Amino acid sequence: MPVESTLLAHFTRYPAMQLADVYKLIHQAAMGSEHAIRDEQSARSWMTRELAEMGEGPVEPLLDLLSDETGIIRVHLRPYIASGGDPVQLLGAFISTANQHKGQIGLFETYWQAAVSLAEGAQIPFSSDEMRSFIVPLAAQGFPAVHHSSEYQKLYRPAYRVVQSGLLEMF
Q: Which of 64, 88, 119, 138 has the CB geometry, 3.0–4.6 Å to 74, for a possible disulfide?
């Protein structure tokens, strides 16, 4: 699935996505979860806390393939747990992905340009100028990870882990 299809599918499911959410999706597709691990204990504590506090959320698929090229997926926690998924196995896949997957800045830039093209074609609700203004300071910082926008967090209550698809037995 090309990144354009992934972006359009996410806008259909999450119409209030902001530029930070587009950036985060593209960043995860190209870079994986490397930014999310300080150490295994903090990753374990984060997941335990999130599972306990995530509550109800929107209807979501079990997973979203973010990039065919990298094999990176988002595994949504609510349907994962509801389908009998093992949180310990998911945590292991998340940590392995963070340790093994090497992000690709060039691929990130290619994906961002694809999003700019969608904006130029009025397929997503941002202008290409807005997208360029958004990316300039982040490029100067080496394309760091960002959080979801507050609006996205409030409306969609995201709860997922970003993993390499081949690292989870159920996939």
A: 64
